Amino acid sequence: MAGSDTKERIQAVARKLFVEQGIQNTSLRQIADKLGITKPALYYHFTSRDDLVRSIVQPLVEEMESFVDGQEQGDTQQLLADYFDLIWRHRDVIGMMVRELSTLSYMDLGTRMFVWRRRLILLLLGPDPTRAQHVAATVALGGLADCAVEYADAPAEEVKPAAVAAAAAALGQA
């Protein structure tokens, strides 16, 4: 079995178990057993459960950093749609974070999420939003993320149009 293939299989099984049972309720033994590998084989790829969790969260962090850094103020509808797509791709990890808030301590996610949201709000509203506008943008962005988690099992093509329209409406845009 190839090393990267095994690593990806470990991450996939761990992600599924973490979402279903929670991180703290999932042992490395359960993950190894589910994969049919030994616990030492799992440790070859990940030194600890924390290391495994970080590896699962890292793609979200990297993609969000890149997304926020690459945005320019402009088309609000497009930014909301693109943000939804990003969140949708990582809905299992976001669901894992919502269900087990201790996940926010990994890679300082709680702080990073607030920074990302503030930067996106500035892109949506410009440099001096009113308090009401700021609240509306928080509802819009948070609502998009909530929809990706709440309707994770529904087809994206059903969820996205309604979610993006609702986010735009929260911002006062038709």
Order of helices and strands: HHHHHHHHH
* Residue share in helix: over 70%
Number of strands: 0
Average pLDDT metric: 89
What is the total domain count?
Answer: 2
Structural class: mainly alpha
Major sheet details: none
Strand content: under 5%
Oligomer: single chain
Molecular shape: elongated
Low-confidence stretches: none
Distance between the termini: 52 Å
Radius of gyration: 18 Å
| Total DSSP helices | 9
Please explain how this structure is put together.
It is a single chain. Helix 1 crosses helix 6 and helix 4 runs parallel beside helix 7 (109-125). The chain starts with a helix and ends with a helix. It has helices at 3-21, 28-35, 39-45, 49-70, 76-89, 91-99, 109-125, 131-150, 156-170. The protein is built from nine helices and no strands. The mean pLDDT is 89. It folds into two domains: 1-47, Arc Repressor Mutant, subunit A (Orthogonal Bundle); 58-170. The chain is mainly α and 174 residues long.
Summary tags:
174 residues, mainly alpha, Arc Repressor Mutant, subunit A, 2 domains, 9 helices
Summarize the helices and strands and which ones pair or pack.
Elements: H1 3-21, H2 28-35, H3 39-45, H4 49-70, H5 76-89, H6 91-99, H7 109-125, H8 131-150, H9 156-170
